[in-house]
From TrEMBL:
Annotated protein name in UniProt: adenosine deaminase
Any GO BP annotation: nucleotide metabolic process
One GO MF term: metal ion binding
EC supergroup of this enzyme: hydrolase
Family: Belongs to the metallo-dependent hydrolases superfamily. Adenosine and AMP deaminases family.
One Pfam family recorded for the sequence: A_deaminase
Obligatory cofactor(s): Zn(2+)
Entry-linked InterPro entries: A_deaminase_dom, Ado/ade_deaminase, Metal_Hydrolase
Amino acid sequence: MSEQNAGYALADGTDIRALPKVSLHDHLDGGLRPSTVIELGDAIGFELPTTDPVELARWFGEKSNSGSLVEYLKTFDLTTAVMQTREGLTRVAREFVQDLGADGVVYGEIRWAPEQHLTRGLSLDETVEAVQEGIEAGIQDVRATGKRIRVGQLVSAMRHLDRGLEIAQLAVRHRDNGVVGFDIAGPEAGFPPANQRAAFDYLAENFFPATVHAGEADGLDSIRSALLDGRALRLGHGVRIAEDISIERQDDENTYVTLGTLSQWVKDREIALETSPTSNLQTGAIAAWGTDILDHPFDLLYQLGFRVTVNTDNRLMSGTTLTRELSILADAFAYDRTDLEIFQLNAAAGAFLPLEEREELADIITAGFEGS
């Protein structure tokens, strides 16, 4: 992945990759190396569109630029197919952490759906254990290079299926074995968090944190359900909260807006928005505002004081890294080191860690930005 990070610098020459970063929204089955997909596919006899890594990366990029979340999600049929064995899951998780470390990530949360990895005989618990084994090996690999990293699992339930409570119980069962939070993923429109209310009730009873995909392929009602039914402490993407912000007028220097009750609540409660700029363009999440990064409501939300964070979502499908996402935003909105540091501190504050450890993470970020 290092070649993807080359040349990403701020206007003052700062190497963005060298800055300490926090990754909150990064899917395991969306972050495979193309070469790994090919090798694992060959091992199980799975037919791929091509066996050339460069061409396969291009294929994922082309299929993902559809403007539709539903179409975007179809590319995961390939990646999940090669992640059905303990060996496959462990290898993918290990390389995932290695790539995060190479990108300057000091804390990451890896989200994935165990129920999608059972076709070759693994149990739910065995999949979590396999991924944790890979994470721990990857952490050791990163530390061997002289860098620091910490990584936790976010266990996801597929929102269009009926295993939410079972997956919530799985997450809580492994809270002392690397799992730090819960999520629901998959097609958003038509499958509100309210459908998984039993799972979220169970999590609340066990004081276990949840983030919810909301405000990506569906609007304000989805966000409202994430907060009310899901007790979400963060919003996965959440960019469509901007639909609840009315721009009254603009002049050369200022934009005057009015926040609705929902957006005001999200802002005032400092609920982190897990934005993923490139992915948001690919899936049409910001279609109401335009089709260019300059149209993304990220800067509006940032300027209004929302707790915005920057993420990759799926590094393979978007052909990206966290370094690249930060660079894209910096180029579009003239952000400097201070802005990028704020985004990382926002993410650290929203991390599913104990308070003292979030404060330690913030100190690591501040020291890294001052020393780089």
